[in-house]
Design goal:
The structure is a single chain. By secondary structure, the protein is of the alpha+beta class. Helices cover 16% and strands 36% of the residues. The chain folds into 3 domains: 3-133, no CATH class; 137-227 and 396-416, Nuclear Transport Factor 2, Chain: A (Roll), CATH 3.10.450.350; 259-372, Glucose Permease (Domain IIA), CATH 2.70.70.10. The chain has helices spanning 14-34, 49-54, 151-156, 165-180, 390-405; strands at residues 3-8, 93-95, 98-100, 104-113, 116-123, 126-133, 137-146, 195-204, 210-222, 225-232, 237-239, 259-262, 265-270, 275-279, 282-285, 291-293, 298-305, 311-316, 321-331, 340-341, 346-350, 360-367, 370-372, 413-416.
Length: 417
């Protein structure tokens, strides 16, 4: 914690007073030591060899040539001492990151966190404090990239020296992923040659760190189809150009996976049972321990062991939908029947429990008790922009799309991969 103190001159320094009293006591003690001992004869007044050795100047205790002891309290401020160093006894001293002379404080500033400063100032015979927010600089960047292997590698290759690795991953890559996660399966649908553009706004502190950052608008072209998303602050979510929510009731996938090892099928050979049977879900191959998230808001109806499913979690959603997450290595804390969960909430980890030959997540989507293929059904979307917010949304959309297309060059910096 950094701070700064201003003081008012003219008041006596308590520490200087204590130092002066201490030096006066030292002088008196040294004067007593130079007086002859009445119990000692005259011949004994000559110093012994040990006494001569103990006196660094070679002076005898009763030697009239002995020089008077000069202490720092006898010198004028700034006068040099025996070793030639300036006397710093009256210089301001650091105290807990503050500069003070222990005199009357006329102002005090303390940085309590990276974004706020507390100021304490006199108010008559007392003091008052006020909290002020430190200023930030707002940068608006347009990021342009092309997929050669993955979104991660593309974002890390952006020619943007001011963006650190952590910011690229947490703010930029995930910022591009979030508005399109309901429309594009980034683990399955991404292809070489796909491209993206994004308007990225960041608030930068004086030390160069980022206070806040957000993707305000994004465009992603996947397999020749272009998706666009606009951030609308009053609703705190992304919308398409037509005002429909980018959010869907269900996420495309409940886990970050390497590949789909088995799709929804009417007839499939079961590797454990050794016979043909229907496969009413989608299997996502992933490492043991990979996080599993619920694909929609809902309530837990089952959490525990369930036959061939092994460790499983079942969630009931709106309008008769249910989802199941099977073969988990273990179930997350506080996930139990009756608990409410939010879309994207952690519910467990990938494993091999039940009838499984390797680590994977078996995911089922059911509508009124019947299993359906999540990749072949039009899932319900979120709530669109309301009529009373329509005008405000169109104004925001017009400005952000101009930035996205690069027409407002005075406001942006374009960074290409």
């Amino acid at each position: 914690m950094l701070g700064h103190v201003d003081v008012e001159a003219g008041a006596e320094d308590p520490e200087a007073t204590l130092d002066r009293e201490r030096d006066r006591s030292d002088q008196q003690r040294q004067h007593r030591d130079r007086q002859p001992d009445p119990n000692r004869n005259a011949d004994a007044l000559d110093p012994t060899p040990e006494e001569r050795k103990g006196d660094p100047r070679g002076h005898q205790p009763g030697d009239q040539r002995a020089q008077p002891v000069v202490t720092d309290s006898d010198r004028a401020p700034g006068q040099r001492g025996e070793r030639g160093e300036p006397d710093s006894r009256r210089e301001p001293r650091p105290l807990g990151g503050c500069v003070t002379m222990l005199e009357r404080i006329i102002s005090l500033s303390i940085r309590v966190d990276p974004d706020n400063l507390v100021e304490i100032v006199p108010d008559g015979d007392s003091y008052i404090s006020r909290l002020s927010e430190l200023p930030v600089r707002v940068d608006t960047l347009v990021l342009v990239g092309e997929i050669r292997s993955s979104l991660y590698n593309s974002v890390m290759a952006l020619a943007a020296p001011e963006l650190g690795a952590q910011e690229r991953i947490e703010r930029v890559m995930w910022g591009i992923y979030r508005p399109f996660q309901w429309s594009i399966d980034f683990g399955l649908d991404i292809r070489r040659g796909d491209s993206y553009r994004a308007v990225y706004e960041r608030e930068v502190r004086g030390d160069g760190s980022v206070k806040r950052a957000r993707i305000l608008a994004a465009e992603f072209t996947n397999r020749g189809r272009t998706y666009r998303a606009i951030w609308f602050a009053p609703r705190r979510e992304y919308f398409a150009e037509d005002g429909n929510s980018m959010k869907r009731v269900f996420l495309k996938a409940p886990v970050d996976f390497r590949r789909i090892s088995s799709r929804f099928a009417r007839r499939r050979y079961h590797p454990v049972l050794g016979k043909w049977r229907s496969h009413r879900g989608t299997d996502y191959a992933a490492n043991t321990g990979t996080r599993v998230y619920t694909t929609a808001d809902g309530a837990i109806t089952r959490a525990g062991w369930w036959g061939g499913y092994g460790q499983v979690v079942e969630v009931r959603h709106v309008n008769g939908y249910r989802t199941r997450y099977a073969h988990l290595s273990f179930i997350a804390k506080r996930i139990r029947p009756g608990a409410r969960v939010r879309q994207g909430q952690l519910i467990g980890h990938v494993g091999t429990t039940g009838l499984a030959t390797g680590p994977h997540l078996h995911y089922e989507l059911r509508l009124k008790g019947k299993a359906i293929d999540p990749y072949k059904v039009n899932l319900p979307s979120g709530t669109p922009v309301s009529e009373d917010q329509g005008v405000e949304f169109r104004l925001v959309q017009e400005r952000l799309l101009r930035l996205l297309d690069g027409s407002n060059r005075d406001e942006i910096t374009t960074l290409a991969e």
